TrEMBL record:
<dbReference type="InterPro" id="IPR009010">
    <property type="entry name" value="Asp_de-COase-like_dom_sf"/>
</dbReference>
<dbReference type="InterPro" id="IPR006656">
    <property type="entry name" value="Mopterin_OxRdtase"/>
</dbReference>
<protein>
    <submittedName>
        <fullName>Formate dehydrogenase</fullName>
    </submittedName>
</protein>
<dbReference type="Pfam" id="PF00384">
    <property type="entry name" value="Molybdopterin"/>
</dbReference>
<dbReference type="GO" id="GO:0051539">
    <property type="term" value="F:4 iron, 4 sulfur cluster binding"/>
</dbReference>
<feature type="compositionally biased region" description="Low complexity">
    <location>
        <begin position="20"/>
        <end position="29"/>
    </location>
</feature>
<keyword id="KW-0004">4Fe-4S</keyword>
<dbReference type="GO" id="GO:0008863">
    <property type="term" value="F:formate dehydrogenase (NAD+) activity"/>
</dbReference>
<keyword id="KW-0479">Metal-binding</keyword>
<feature type="region of interest" description="Disordered">
    <location>
        <begin position="1"/>
        <end position="32"/>
    </location>
</feature>
<dbReference type="GO" id="GO:0030151">
    <property type="term" value="F:molybdenum ion binding"/>
</dbReference>
<dbReference type="InterPro" id="IPR050123">
    <property type="entry name" value="Prok_molybdopt-oxidoreductase"/>
</dbReference>
<dbReference type="InterPro" id="IPR037951">
    <property type="entry name" value="MopB_CT_YdeP"/>
</dbReference>
<keyword id="KW-0411">Iron-sulfur</keyword>
<keyword id="KW-0560">Oxidoreductase</keyword>
<keyword id="KW-0500">Molybdenum</keyword>
<comment type="similarity">
    <text>Belongs to the prokaryotic molybdopterin-containing oxidoreductase family.</text>
</comment>
Length: 775
């Protein structure tokens, strides 16, 4: 479409951005979607992808091996847990897309880089870059010709080692992780960083669920959810907040359909009515598929304004408390007295917050809020689940704590069918944190790492994602290592982040496919290609497996089964060991010995990490093992030793007059920065990504018609402005004052300074904008 033009008032201005999606020639279409989620639409879409990736034979074979007890590999698609029965064909359209994306027969070899300069590739769309296929050998940037040229692994490691050894301070380097790195590689990676002397370990959860982790830690003394799949199967009420499950956690659809069939209540809380909030055809149920039998996946949909969740939750708590005056069973007083602190203060706070204010802030009527509270009170067992719609806000921590508050009022913790249940993002993002990726590590963890691994880890906190970008911009961080992911595009304030990366002395990207982060690089740059999760990992002592942890704290093995995309690929643990040895030539850590057999890494991890005792044996149990969750047993590692009810003030989330609040999100056909097509099937959009969903009245007020061109201008907290011009407006069922569009394109609108003071997460779901008809 070529409509996208970027302007910014910063010195780092990049006049035009290439498209993210393929920008195919078809005309944009919008037709509201009225079909069930998953089912045949998904099957059709899968076939299209398999054909495009020429994977019709290998694809289905791989899918049969995916998520099957310990005989297959873990789906790299999302962090939803595997079905407890293990053998169900519980797979989804987007998982299949994701797997075949990795298995493509297309290759990016040295000839490719010889034919295209970096400046030329920088003009390509993100879709086109990844579409070239799998990276095959290590490459180094040659500034003389502006091309990437081949380099041996040995020389690549030595280049890294030389630069890192030359740094005057280990904190001049920062080591990013994207959440698919397996546990064993994760452990080695943090060990390398800490042995080098830094806690600069930014990761994608700094943009994702940092708020959830901090809130749960403060409230319950554990950074994770406590509910597991069995709880999902027995809950009487499920509250699904701020997640587009049909696209981003599609296997949840099965859980929702099963819940509906057994008579459970399912309440969706989302400014948009997403496909998961309607009905589905259970994809692995062949009878349903054959008969087009749909099952509802919702009993109540509430559409708060963006950021209105906390007011809704507080309103529900207020209604519960009001009901308890006549119906003592509305509260679990015994649970509150025995296991919690802060109840009296919280009750006073709820009582003192007026319904008028709760209605204004949530964008919902009192009647609707009370309706949700009734569902909650009528249910013996409730689970509240959430994702980015809740976490990526200024007050994300407070909102997650409010979720916990509400659960605690009725003792929905530490028993079957109940509890908080965040939906995590990347397939191993939770495992990364468990295994040591944390820029603010706990002293007890460092003590054990020091004792077991014989290193002297730094104690000062390191840099997270935003901190790293700012430090690179100031020239204080000069080496950036990306262990997977696509940092340049995933991070906020795109031009600022680009400028920051370009100031580095060295950028290293460990990747499977070509992406923007290879083209936005430091003075020196390396592309290090690695094995994907579907591939056989052969080391000196045989075929290796890695472990991952899902959203519900289950740890299990993942074994690749495909021949590697190239014989030059190394596994992630091997890449890390090579980097570490070069940077730490005198290290007494047995890097090479670890890589020969990952059991050895696991043996060390078992000594360092809580809950990993007997790791090698337990991870080989048919479904792996569940990391112990103290809060689940009503043991709270909090200062009071109890679950702590919070009493945070209600934030003001109402947009200024004339302004709108814009949230960024994924389309159905993308995986974070990987764009499969310009379609968003469940939202009824075809051939268009440069769009903004708006309320029809807000459009009318601005004289904007369907597909009318608009300019979007964001105003940051510091008053600076950023804009996207020539986007097309789509009238959508979204509350007034709210608008939505796609990441990563809209990252140009998010100022680097606009991150939550509670979680340090960039405000990816809350951008203050004005939208005007384009002149
Ligand atoms: N196929 C696929 N699967 C994925 C991913 C992918 O890109 N593609 N990404 C993975 C990753 S890393 C993650 S973190 C997850 C992300 O999973 P999601 O959290 O579903 O990601 P988003 O697309 O950002 O969608 C956010 C949802 O929150 C809603 N929302 C926005 N603002 C608010 C609000 O203020 N309140 C409420 N209640 N809702 C709001 C939006 O309407 C949208 O439905 O998915 C993971 N799974
Ligand atoms: N505006 C806005 N921005 C956002 C978000 C948002 O909602 N709105 N969401 C944020 C969230 S939740 C997240 S998690 C981040 C995502 O940020 P990242 O995790 O950094 O980005 P991805 O797009 O998942 O990374 C894709 C790249 O990973 C590499 N890759 C794939 N598989 C492997 C593998 O097995 N090993 C290795 N080494 N590399 C591999 C490929 O080269 C591919 O190009 O984006 C964040 N950015
Ligand atoms: Mo994420």
């Amino acid at each position: 479409m070529g409509l996208r033009a970027v302007s910014t008032d910063r010195d780092t201005q990049e006049p035009r951005e290439p498209e993210a999606g393929p920008a195919a020639s078809g005309a944009p279409e919008f037709r509201p979607y009225h079909h069930p989620a998953a089912g045949w639409g998904a099957a059709k879409s899968v076939t299209k992808v398999l054909m495009r990736e020429q994977a019709l034979v290998d694809g289905p074979r791989a899918i049969m091996r995916m998520n099957h007890e310990n005989s297959g590999f873990d789906c790299p698609g999302c962090a939803w847990p595997d079905d407890l029965k293990g053998l169900k064909l519980d797979i989804c359209e987007n998982g299949i897309k994701h797997v075949t994306w990795e298995m493509t027969p297309k290759r990016v070899g040295r000839e490719f880089f010889a034919a295209h300069s970096v400046s030329e590739l920088a003009e390509w769309s993100d879709f086109a870059l990844e579409d070239q296929g799998r990276l095959t050998e290590p490459m180094v940037y040659d500034p003389g010709t502006d091309h990437y040229v081949p380099i041996t692994w040995k020389d690549a490691f030595e280049l890294f080692g030389r630069v890192v050894r030359g740094l005057d301070d280990p904190n001049r380097a920062s080591y990013y992780t994207s959440g698919r790195l397996g546990n064993e590689a994760t452990f080695l990676y943090q060990l390398m960083a800490r042995e080098l002397g830094t806690n600069n370990l930014p990761d994608c959860s700094n943009m994702c669920h940092e708020a959830s982790g901090r809130a749960l830690q403060a409230a319950l003394g554990t950074g994770k959810g406590t509910a597991d799949l069995r709880d999902w199967e027995t809950a009487d009420a499920l509250f699904i907040m701020g997640v587009n499950a049909a696209s981003n956690a599609p296997r949840m659809l099965t859980a929702l359909a099963e819940a509906y069939r057994r008579g459970a209540q399912i309440v969706h809380v989302n400014p948009l009515v997403e496909a998961a909030a309607t009905r589905t055809i259970v994809p692995h149920d062949f009878v349903d598929m054959a008969l087009f039998k749909t099952t509802r996946t919702s009993t109540l949909n509430l559409q708060p304004r963006i950021g209105g969740d906390m007011a809704l939750l507080r309103g529900m708590a207020k209604a519960v408390l009001e009901q308890s005056r006549t119906d003592p069973r509305a509260l679990d007083r015994e649970f509150i007295d025995r296991h919690t602190t802060g109840f009296a203060e919280y009750r006073a706070l709820c009582e003192n917050t007026s319904w008028a204010e709760l209605e204004r802030q949530s964008g919902l009527s009192r009647a609707d809020i009370v309706k949700a509270a009734r569902v909650y009170c009528d249910a013996d067992r409730s689970i509240i689940s959430w994702c980015l719609g809740v976490s990526q806000h200024e007050h994300g921590v407070d909102t997650v704590r409010e979720i916990v508050n509400l659960l605690l009022l009725r003792g929905n913790l530490g028993r079957e069918g109940a509890g908080p249940s965040p939906v995590r993002g990347h397939s191993n993002v939770q495992g990364n944190r468990t295994c040591g990726i944390d820029h603010r590590p706990a002293p007890e963890f460092l003590d054990r790492l020091a004792a077991v691994c014989g290193i002297d880890p730094p104690r000062a906190h390191g840099l997270d994602t935003v901190g790293t970008i700012k430090a690179m911009h100031r020239g204080e961080v000069r080496v950036f290592v990306g262990m997977g992911g696509n940092f340049a595009l995933a991070a906020p304030d795109t031009p600022y982040t680009y400028a920051a990366l370009r100031k580095c002395e060295l950028t290293v990207q460990v990747s499977t496919k070509l992406n923007r982060s290879h083209l936005v690089h430091g003075r020196q740059a390396l592309i290090l290609p690695c094995l994907g999760r579907t591939e056989k990992d052969q080391q000196r002592r045989g075929l290796q497996s890695t472990s991952v942890e899902d959203s519900m704290s289950m740890v299990h093995l993942s074994v690749g089964m495909k021949r590697p995309a190239s014989r030059h690929l190394l596994s992630e643990p091997a890449v890390i060991a090579g980097l570490a040895r070069a940077a730490l030539p005198a290290s007494s850590t047995p890097w090479e010995w670890y890589v020969e057999d990952y059991d050895r890494i696991r043996d060390t991890m078992a000594q360092v990490l809580d809950g990993f005792e007997d790791f090698n044996r337990r991870v080989r149990l048919p479904l792996g093992f569940r990391i112990k969750q103290p809060a689940r047993e009503l043991v709270f590692h909090t200062p009071s030793g109890k679950a702590e009810i919070s009493a945070a003030p209600l934030p003001d989330v109402v947009p200024a007059p004339g302004g709108l609040v814009l949230g960024t999100m994924r389309s159905h056909d993308q995986w974070n920065t990987t764009i499969y097509s310009d379609d968003d099937r469940y939202r009824g959009v075809k051939n268009l990504r440069t769009l903004v969903f708006m309320n029809a009245d807000d459009m009318r007020e601005r004289g904007v018609e369907e597909f009318g061109r608009v300019d979007i201008t964001a105003t940051a907290r510091d008053g600076s402005t950023r804009s996207l011009d020539g986007y097309l407006a789509i009238p959508y069922e979204i509350p007034r004052g709210c608008a939505a569009g796609y990441m990563p394109e809209m990252n140009v609108l998010i100022a680097i300074g606009d991150y939550s003071t509670q979680s340090d997460q960039p405000l990816m779901k809350h951008i203050d904008v004005t939208i005007t008809a384009a002149p």
